[in-house]
Amino acid sequence: MPPSRESMQNRGDEDEVCPVCKSSRYLNPDMQFLINPECYHKMCESCVDRIFSSGPANCPVATCHKTLRKNRFRKQTFEDINVEREVDIRRRVMQILNRREEEFDSKRAWDDFLEQREEIIANLVHGTDVAKTEADLQKYAQENMRSIRANQALEAQEASSFQARQTQEQELARLRREAVRQEYENERRELLAGREDVLSRLAAGRPGDAATIAREGQKVLLKKSSARRSEEDRIRQKQAALRNSDARKAGQSGTTAADKAGDAGDTGLIKGLKRIKTPEPEKPYDPFGGMVPDKRDYYTLQDFYPSSYLDPIRQDTRMQAGGYDLREYYSRTLLEAFAGLGCFIDEEVSEREAANTDTAATEGAAIAAASTSPAGSA
Amino acid sequence: MKFFIDDLPVLFPYPRIYPEQYAYMCDLKKTLDAGGHCVLEMPSGTGKTVSLLSLIVAYQMHYPEHRKLIYCSRTMSEIEKALAELKALMKFRTQQLGYTEDFRALGLTSRKNLCLHPSVKREKSGTIVDARCRSLTAGFVKEKKERGEDVELCVYHENLDLLEPHNLVPPGVFTLDGLLKYGEDHKQCPYFSARRMMPFCNVIIYSYHYLLDPKIAERVSREFSKDCIVVFDEAHNIDNVCIESLSIDITENSLRKATRGANNLERKINEMKSSDAEKLQSEYSKLVEGLREAEQAREEDQFISNPVLPDDLLKEAVPGNIRRAEHFISFLKRFIEYLKTRMKVTHTISETPPSFLTHVKDLTYIERKPLRFCAERLTSLVRTLELINIEDYQPLQEVATFATLVSTYDKGFLLILEPFESEAATVPNPVLHFTCLDAAIAIKPVFERFSSVIITSGTLSPLEMYPKMLGFTTVMQESYSMTLARRSFLPMVVTRGSDQAQISSSFQIRNDPGVVRNYGNIVLEFSRITPDGIVVFFPSYLYMESIISMWQGMGILDSIWNYKLILVETPDAQESSLALETYRTACCNGRGAILMCVARGKVSEGIDFDHHYGRAVICIGVPFQYTESRILKARLEFLRENYRIRENDFLSFDAMRHAAQCLGRVLRGKDDYGVMVLADKRFQKKRTQLPKWISQAMLESETNLSTDMAVATAKNFLRGMAQPFKAKDQDGISTWSLADLERHREKQMLEEERARRQALANGHGANGVANGAAAAADEFDDDIDDDLMMLDAQ
Ligand code: SF4
Ligand SMILES: [Zn+2]
Ligand SMILES: [Zn+2]
């Protein structure tokens, strides 16, 4: 059993005295305290050496009879021993329950999972229902070995890529700093040189020239500085471009990492996971986007339509000599007549707004488009 | 007097107007018409506030939109002054128009200044007043009362509920004092009257923080519509205000208190679980549903509100792992413990928010998402628990705010952990500075929300700097010069002592006995020739102390003592105000006095030395910032990388705006006069960075003087100033009557006409204008690098 909360509450304050040998930091300024994650009782380094050097022994704290080993002793990270313990437990639980947000159906399911995980940790920390919770955890761990591993790998990958990005950024910042200093120094040197030049020419020249020389000096300076400025701009643009491309690269590697999170399935413990989807096999490419080119929705084409206007043509061999077929004419005319009926403007607009894909036009529009071109050429 | 700007009739409450006031108003109107932001630099002592108010009120009254004015100022006394001006203006308008307009204007300041509750108002600290007031006014307290429990309420607050909610105070202008008096007479709380009447006011005057500090702005200023006119007066330091409002310092002590707060909360939760579990459950289910508690009944009793959060976050549900109250407490505790471990540093560390977050996650498994919701979750919890003594939770709230900020912004912030408070300290007292580097973050919502934001002050040069730093575009940038009938102030740059040795406060020579003596001589000579008061500004307290003790050793102080009383500003506010009082007395009774103060201290910012209170101001050294500071270094780097502002440019700009502030202290009106001495050889090149009205008044021959020459010039000047000078002499030149104004407008019209004709005649005539300016600006500044060398050393 973990020690009760009350007994640990005031532990943080009595930093100064070892509860086992009662020696105090006052006498021994570099006294170090160690704890063992078995029972989290604190004692000084020399006590640990003294008691546990010859192998496992019982905890010297009066009410505690845990058997402790020397190699498990470590320094305390957090001042509050409760937090220390909680973090240890949390580490263990988090390693098992390491589902990721993208594996869940909805945000709600993810949040429920988070809460459930907190609940489990709290149970373990406060010692309620420990046996059952542990059993559940073990069971889950065995059943979901693969996904746990995969997620761990992902996490490690993310961490390392983040690290890499950080170092890269730092390096870039350093370079930029360097460049600025360089620039600054160059400027300064130029200025000094320019000044000296003017001075020496003043010294050599005739008194009447003084004003001209000074003016020239000024002009040179101006020219240089404007040249410098354009140079600076160029460098800056380059730097900015560099930075952008870096960012893009980093972004890409990030997405590929996230994409790999694949296998999942509802387990007994966790609810709301996404079903595993087997990707549908890809269909052959369809240039009409699902539309059948010869399909007629509104009419059926007949072979013969009575018309006094067309009668002479039907008879006239001259007309048909070149291969002219009246059926062509029928199909074209009818298509044109019905062309507009396939367009449902509201539908089309709402569809476009929803999907924002203008690649697949509606059937009617496509038919109309397909029909106008032969009509024009005939 | 009454005149027109374009079609807008303006009533100006004085019979005469300064030419620059007229120009200022014209530009203001243009800005308002165009709908955009502007930066206007108006010389100090030329009636900026009154011109601003009379134009905007005229604008409000004339056009049908009735755009509301939100006028922000820095201090309570400035707010009071503006309200008084507004009151006079409205009185004048009533007289002129012959009827009273339907107009309301109120000022708002903290509860501490406006409270009437007999025991609450006696509390010294503002936060305690706030907290106690909340415990007397919160919605749930009232509910308890209605249920018959024995709880105390504030009568002044209760009485408000008996009044019509949109008419708590009658129309008109209330100064803060006036409001207090009205509240006392009618037994109603002035603070809440002002707060609740804000939507019904034409003009609101309050402090910057109500707009800039996101924690307050959210609560107080949320309801204003887009077309409000926002004015930031005395805005030369606005970037620092922005940065401070988002920066947080955390110490070991505050963490200890935060832990205590968290433990208290835990206890309360347990109590509530046994007594009233329903409430916790209902909070929980609300959070599960992702329902934002729709700003319940009284938004006023909210305990904390969130620092700037992106809108999408506000619509999201609280993450699952902090939904339950007990989980949230354990989360907070873990985070606080983590911060405690960070406090055990041995050397200074600076860290970006992303790397901090990774470290948090490695050690405590706290993710970014729940951290972002920290502040909000805490608010909700505190509200559910119906806590009364909220002031105990202040440190916890700070930690929560920090958590939210650090996880919301990747850029523009930096964490700096310093184990020691100061360079010399040996006992570790670690501080975690979470500093905002980007002034634009805090002010961005203001620029986005309001169509016209006006930034104005006496010293804003160089004007381009502000739009750059704050990330906005202007439709108007203007700096006005001062029209004077006589040369009433004498700015000079003293570069050498009487022995011709150069003087400067740069690090190499600042403690050189020769330099110190020369500085001493300047002060001594001026104390001999100047009547009444002299104000001397030093770059820092440290330097002031060392130089004064050296003067003591050289016997300079004793000689000064023969002419003037010597008084010194200290970091302690009470001591300083006592010194100031003595100084005033000595100036009034003819003994004369010298006040030694610091260019970045309280005196340089808020205290006027008009007339005999300041006949000379001496700026000893260029008031650069302390460049060794980590925070400053980080900010400089940020400015360079993101806004293309070079370190030197920024440091120099910052030093000169403070110098200009100091100089402006002695000239508070057109009938005032004074000498302004800039004593450092580096000022010679930097003078172009002074506000236009000062640098224009500086003669070329007075930019490179030695002490004795400066003294001779000043003597001459002071003698001239002592001649009688009648108000009549200013007429038509530096003050205009209505007739002068008309004449000016006619002339302007003629000129415009001519310009138009000329422009037509020669198509394009805009070449060859910008040449002259470029040459002056390119003068390279090689003196500053003494101070900058250390910057590169990092
Ligand atoms: S309601 Fe007003 S008077 Fe009452 S305590 Fe609060 S601030 Fe003071
Ligand atoms: Zn021991
Ligand atoms: Zn033990």
From TrEMBL, chain A:
Keywords tagged on the record: Coiled coil, Kinase, Metal-binding, Nucleus, Transferase, Zinc, Zinc-finger
Record keyword Transferase present: yes
One BP term from GO: transcriptional start site selection at RNA polymerase II promoter
Residue ranges occupied by any RING-type domain in the UniProt entry: 18-61
A cellular component term, taken from the record's GO annotations: transcription factor TFIIK complex
Disordered: region residues: 215-292, 354-378
GO MF, one example: kinase activity
Annotated InterPro entries: MAT1/Tfb3 (IPR004575), MAT1_centre (IPR015877), Znf_RING (IPR001841), Znf_RING/FYVE/PHD (IPR013083), Znf_RING_CS (IPR017907)
Residue stretches of biased makeup (Low complexity): 254-268, 359-378
SUPFAM superfamilies for the chain: RING/U-box
Subcellular compartments: Nucleus
Coiled-coil residues: 137-190
UniProt protein name: RNA polymerase II transcription factor B subunit 3
Automatic annotation (TrEMBL), chain B:
Pfam families tied to this protein: DEAD_2 (PF06733), HBB (PF06777), Helicase_C_2 (PF13307)
EC number: 5.6.2.3
CC per GO annotation: nucleotide-excision repair factor 3 complex; transcription factor TFIIH core complex; transcription factor TFIIH holo complex
Chief location of this protein within or outside the cell: nucleus
Cofactor section: [4Fe-4S] cluster
Record's keyword terms, sorted: 4Fe-4S, ATP-binding, Coiled coil, DNA damage, DNA repair, DNA-binding, Helicase, Hydrolase, Iron, Iron-sulfur, Isomerase, Metal-binding, Nucleotide-binding, Nucleus
Catalysed reactions, as listed in the record: ATP + H2O = ADP + phosphate + H(+)
Coiled coil: 248-297
Subcellular locations according to the entry: Nucleus
Signal peptide, first to last residue: none
GO molecular function: 4 iron, 4 sulfur cluster binding; 5'-3' DNA helicase activity; ATP binding; damaged DNA binding; hydrolase activity, acting on acid anhydrides, in phosphorus-containing anhydrides; metal ion binding
Protein name: DNA 5'-3' helicase
Protein species of origin: Aspergillus oryzae (strain ATCC 42149 / RIB 40) (Yellow koji mold)
